[in-house]
Amino acid sequence: MPCGWLRRNSMDLFTPVVSAHRQHPNFTNLLSDTDWDVREVLSEWAEGFVDRDGKFVQEFQLTFNSCWWELYLFAVLKSLGIEVDFSHDAPDFVASNARLAIEAVISSHAQGAKPEWRKTISDIAGGQDIEQRYTETLARLYNSLDAKRRLYQTRYSGLPHVKGKAYVIAVHNFSTPDSFQLGDVAMQRLLYDLEGRQSFLKNGEVSLPLGIFDRDEFTSVSAVIYSSLATYGKVRALGKSTADFIFQAARIRNNWELIPISANKKDYKESLRDGLRVFHNPRADVPLPMSMFDVPDVREFRIFKGQIHTSCHPDGDLCMRQVTRLKQV
Fold this sequence. Notes:
The protein has helices at 25-30, 36-46, 56-62, 65-79, 121-124, 130-154, 185-192, 232-238, and strands spanning 93-94, 100-107, 166-173, 199-202, 206-209, 223-227, 245-253, 257-264, 276-280, 298-304, 307-310, 317-325. It has 8 helices and 12 strands. It is of the alpha/beta class.
């Protein structure tokens, strides 16, 4: 381990170390003068984060979304008082003051499909078959979770610092241009299959399972942390810019009352953890403690006697949000 490997100096995320033609489009966008508040929020998220292999900044500028998701998760853990032991190279977040190990992953677009950073108005204006979008999302989410489940069984389960800890896979959905509008329906189906469908067809050909928390191979996974809303819109909501942004969002209160929201930036309220979900595995070998994420702005899902039970935010759980910047006349 090189000297200084664990220094907690703030990373310089934004000075380019990658040539312009290789930069991820999302990274290039946040370098603009108008995105100063985005950079400010990201710097706050990154405070205390340790670049263990010296490659994080480069990867952030090249691939972006996976690093963005790690920074967000680290900010969430800090907000909950969960301390990360960065002396271990894997999994991504091993808690030093809790029995918890988190592996982060994103569900990205399929090969040949349109990536989220190239979305157009037509991609997010509706009119598409919602069930088809759920099926596309299911396939991408399954692949992400199964890969990290296999990684645990082939490597992580043998690590001394992981034994006895709850193993949680944290996944963000970037799989389709409209993923931030699709909520958590696909994840509910994938993990619990309360509708009893048992399986679905990927690309109309390959059968993949639903209700994977009921399968023996997934008992090693204590829970899944999920979001589709830890996006640019999240930092727009948290940032200090007074530019003209319109936030359109939806919350669900008491699991049935839809609360549509349309507000200017100055009137819109959203917390760091709004939109975050925790799905508990009822068959987990090491259950995730019920109290660990027991805060109002994290929605938790549990199964009791075959029925799903969820926590409810008093102001409604955030399930979608999009942001539009008004052009200056």
